[in-house]
Amino acid sequence: MYGELIIYKALAELRAEAARTYLSFAWWILEPLMTMAVFYVVFGLFLQGRQPDFVPFLLVGLLFWNGFANTVQHGAGALLDNGPLMLQTYLPKWVLPLIVVVMDGIKFALVFLLLLVLLWCYGLVPTRAYWALPVLLGLWALWTVSATMLAAALTPFLPDLRLLIASVLQLMFFASGVFFSADSLPPVYRPWFYANPMAALLEALRRVLMKGQWPDWAHLWPVALESAGLMLFACYLLWRWDRLYPKLIGG
Hints:
12 helices, mainly alpha
């Protein structure tokens, strides 16, 4: 029942969002493309990025980072933005951030398909390593959803937490390997680099999409465990404070 509600509400919100712009659905693709173009000009041309195949390297990093960061930022306000709905009828509070996840997930899927076409045009054709993509996409989705659920669970207690989340994401952006690979770091720093789930995921995705190599699973097991643990903790908080949220937001 709630699955149908989530999908219906997400599609309705997407149609309403598209109706607010002249470019409608095309804006979902144009916006990330323009962002990627700006970063390419700044870091690839002006700052002379030395990473081999810098264009696909940057595209992969930005696509998956932006998909993660946008979903977390949008989902952080899922409960606050739906205060009137919570006061009118009862819904399990985990439903609200999942609506945001589905909305941003549909946008991400469209841009991801475009990325694959661009990579193939660049000469990076599919290989056997593509069989690892469903696992990597699942891990990326699990990490994204767990972080989004936790942000949504905590923000009603401190609305300004949304500003802190934005700052933390900005710091993570420059520490997640969007513009550099682990190979460019001294070996002593690499364990700290891989402790960041997004960094480990970006490295694995680039190995598959750009090099045609299987991911290093040793770096991904911690991501799966961290994501699962974070998800359980976030779901516990949403369940524990289920009846408190309407009083917080409505009062």
